[in-house]
Records
---
Amino acid sequence: MRVSAAALRILPLLLMLSACQPEERADPRLRIIDGDAGHGRELIAAYGCGACHEIGAMRSARGRVGPPLTGFETRRYIAGGLPNTPGNVVAFLRDPPRFNPDTAMPDMGLGEPEARDIATYLYEGVK
Amino acid sequence: MTDWVFSQAEWPQTALDPAGPHAASVHWLHMGMLILMVAVVAITMLALVVAWFVRLERSPVWIIWTGGLAFPLVVLVGLIAVNSDVTRAVSALAGPDELVIEVTGKQFWWDVRYPAEGGQEAIRTANEIHIPTGRPVRFRLLSDDVIHSFWVPALGGKRDMIPGRENELVLVADRPGRFRGQCAEFCGQQHARMALEVVAHAPAAFEEWRDEQTRPRLTPDHPQLRAGRQAFSDLGCAACHEIRGVAEGGRLGPDLSNYGERDRMGAGIWPNTIGNTAGWIVDVQRMKPGAEMPSYTDIDGPTLRAVAAYLQSLR
């Protein structure tokens, strides 16, 4: 069977396209049901997380007061010793001093849905 | 009129949706001139196209007289007349019942004083200026350090603030709302982050706000807020910042008596939240390099949270 010249020329392009798949698939354990990453990003700006944290994808978030949040989905622990799971992250965001009395991070008064959206952005959106 | 294009709700710093007579006159002058200029350019282009296709034996001299001399003369004289009229109109906004507000430009924020008048105590605030609607406000504009310029586009034009002299600008807001302003004269490293908000209230609501400002700030009986108030004293914040009834006399920095009520912090830039407040205290020099306030780098976590919570409680 003969392959046409055009198909041969297109083949490398197709191969290149297939290489553009995401390198690592998101860890299914870090999925937050109905979490809205876009809304999470807006909340991060509205609450001013960037005053203390560096968040790679957000130009306005360049703070050095607390730890950087870039690559958050690859961290093993948050807040020093809390396993990085969606439940822990949401609970921590809602009341940081409860998990670490010495923390400098104030209780922002986040509601449950807000904390879920912010956690979703941290897991999915910060590249 | 122009709500459909650049409404003030969507663009808090627009000059195209005027909220007062000063801005309205300037806006209509601008729109009129814009339409006129577009017409002149269109006619010129048309004349060029005609000239390209139509070859005449002798060009008629009347075109040169009318198009080159009479038309510009009439238009320019007309513009001067309208312009003078607008200038006169915006400088005649003053009235007998005007409110005087003294605004001093600083690197990089706005010090705002309401002098005592008619049995009302003098009050001091910063970066968020409250005014009543329908009443002329005479802004007395000063500067401490370099030349700044006071500009709230939705309410009117600019006026420079020059060290050693006092300029005045009378503005009227004819509807309630929040109008963003910006320093309009390069004043140093953080010129771009020297914004302000003018909040216009119905007259009764404004009087209520003003009364509220004269109350001393009592600390609620809450351990964290009490600790925050103590830390405010211990850290020496009071050397620069005043809180009515708590720490008076610090004039180098913004008055914080109603800090928790303000919509934005850092001179109209960041949303005023406990997070931004805490981050600011610890690392103001990263948020706003060149501001006069130093970064307080040796506050432990719980103290920082207490101070930030205390400041948020000031309302």
---
Amino acid sequence: MANPLLGDTPGDTHLLLGNEAIVRGAIEAGVQVVSCYPGTPSSEVPDTFYRISPEGKYYFEYSVNEKVALEVAGGATLAGALTLCTMKHVGVNVAADPLLTLCYIGAPGGLVLLSADDPGCHSSQNEQDNRIYARIAGMPVLEPASAQEAKDMTRDGLLLSKKHNSPLLLRTTTRVNHLRGAVKFGPAPDPGKAEGFKRNPSKFVPIPAFSRPMHLALMERMEALREEAENSQYNFVTGSGEYGIVCSGISRAYVADALENAGLSDRVSVLELGFSYPLPENKCLDFLKSVKEVLVVEELEPVVENDLRILAQKNGLSLKISGKDVLPRNGEFSVTMVENIIREAMGEAPVPACECTLPELPMRPPNLCAGCPHRGTYFAAKKVFGDDAVYSSDIGCYTLGILPPLQAADFLICMGSSISAGGGVARASGQTVVAFIGDSTFFHSGLTGVANAVFNSHDILIVVLDNRTTAMTGHQPNPGVDKTVIGDNDHPLDIESAVRGLGVTEVRTVNPFNQKKTLAAFEELKALSGVRVLIAKEPCPLFTRRVYKTVAPQVAYVAESCTGRFECLDRLACPAMYKEGGKAAVNPILCNGCMLCLQVCGHIKAKKRGS
Amino acid sequence: MSDTKKIRIFMTGVGGQGTLTATTLLAQTVLSQGLPVTSGEIHGMAQRGGVVESTVLIGCKSPKLGIGEADILIGFEPMETMRALPYLKKGGLVVSSIEFMPPLSVAMGKQTCPTIDDIKKAVSACTDKAYYMANQSIGLQAGAVQSGNVAMLGAVCAAGDLPFGPEALEAAIKANLPAKLQAVNLKALELGVAALNA
Ligand code: SF4
Ligand code: SF4
């Protein structure tokens, strides 16, 4: 049976994750090319496209990074293909270079860029507001607030992009990506073949003489898109009253629930902006004129708020506009937070505060899984370098190595920075630097760092934590993997040859579960100088179970002879271990059988799984 | 939407426990009753043993649930039940596991978990409507540890605060779970309903 997301079954209703709804919307638009770099909270969009790709009528790829993904998408739309490119908010920083010029060149086949922002930093290093990118680059913005809208706006955004020859930003936030709701399907036409590239250098080659008119064309396009926003069904007014609210994105849901809770739905006018940029100025102006006071409810930056302030000033309106003066500029909103501000403005008492007090409970921070190969690498590195080296970290599961007792992450900037920023530390201070980077991150942007380190003769030990997959975001393939969820990788790239090709001569590859060899390799590389690379190669056990369908045949157990010194627990902190009656113990259900602990303490032994 | 009685359910557990599967199943059950449903989940790094929180909201637009808003709190791990108590509306329904999954700091003996009695006491300060069950043991009895979550959903449906009963959950299991998982989960549902009445 074909996947329901692909079926031409208008009228069907399915309960979908916001990210799955985006996939369906693209299919309803007739998407022809999809490129991406995975990143939470966007990951289920490409993962779903990938999983159903054997039956789908589109081309899909996991690109090596976001810049490449957007360039592939840019080429595809120039070839007339209806194209979707997906990434998380910080990915757009990587793709910013092609993005800004792509908006000059245009998107003949249609191009939607999904930017999944993360207010509240649920799984990200920052909470930047990418609606600002749309303003720098010159691209319209759609901001869904429900699963149904995630589907509809993806479809309509793709079609609108093609109609206006303009890249379009579909801006979601974690709550939208990860909500689930009923989605009513529309038709899913056969996308057919892309029209093909038509040569036209003055439109497509931004040499200065051509860029200048391109910039003018971009500005004209934005005016035409402003007209679309004026008439868009995604921008509408509900309720009535002298107190007005303008909201966009998921804040629209918070406002709706807050007004209902407070019983104020009939006394407040609400302008919802689902199509928030270019600002539908006439619609907004009519709204501003209809109320005495306006509250702008949008998470993160005062983007719409500033637009409205400018609009009011230009038109000589003197009504009170509030927003970031009463709502935070960081983190997520909640219904109660919004409700209390509205209640106050309307002269109502606030929602009673929760009086429940709790004792402090132990935290439950995420940890490297039981049997994670990174634990072996970190353990060996710390044994050899102790606290003397500066540990430069990167983005992936292995960032969790920051926690005690391993404490193997001293600083982190962005994807790929461990090598280049590590080189900066070494150059500036002469300190010993050990830089950790995962295999996926290595292909994302570590290669250029290696080239730079060799070229500039940095003194750095680079450790590639090669777990044969992209574990952090859900085991997506990268160029180095042998196997994926849907089959073999036909062209696996070899990291060792890659670094040698980049000029590194001192390269060792070890299995981090073999502590003796791993320690020896660290010692050997410690004694050398210049750019040295250690590849710690061993698959993620979760990936092994899912894709190779194998588990380690043995599990660890603690012998009676355990002296209760707890070296194993204190130094490894494997989540399968615990203390019991003054002795260490291993939970055989959680143990992944990596046999690392056996090499740390002689009182730990192996037995057959299940025995 | 406004004519549907709003019901807000908060679910919490530990990564890898099947909390999200249970959330989706409950949301599917609500949808199958023709009710407007939104559900939300936060699971960034959760599979590596962190806390997983999710919501099922009937008749609401927001996928998020704030402090003091939950009509029903389902805790798949007792300490997480306690941590999530501020979300419960006074007098709301609590269905909680009594089987601990200690976090690392506790396993390492560096911190201690509250006892079941501590947890029951904290809950009773907020509500008298609380049910406790050994979800993992029930799950094992049914045939798979994770099905203990479905047993708890069964108990929630049987407790009478939802506009539907366990039969709706039974139908949703039959309609949405792969064939090979149905028998185990139907058994778990039955055991969960029985545990509520025990
Ligand atoms: S063998 Fe030891 S270190 Fe490895 S997963 Fe099992 S308990 Fe943890
Ligand atoms: S998912 Fe894999 S790589 Fe990531 S922490 Fe767990 S075992 Fe390690």
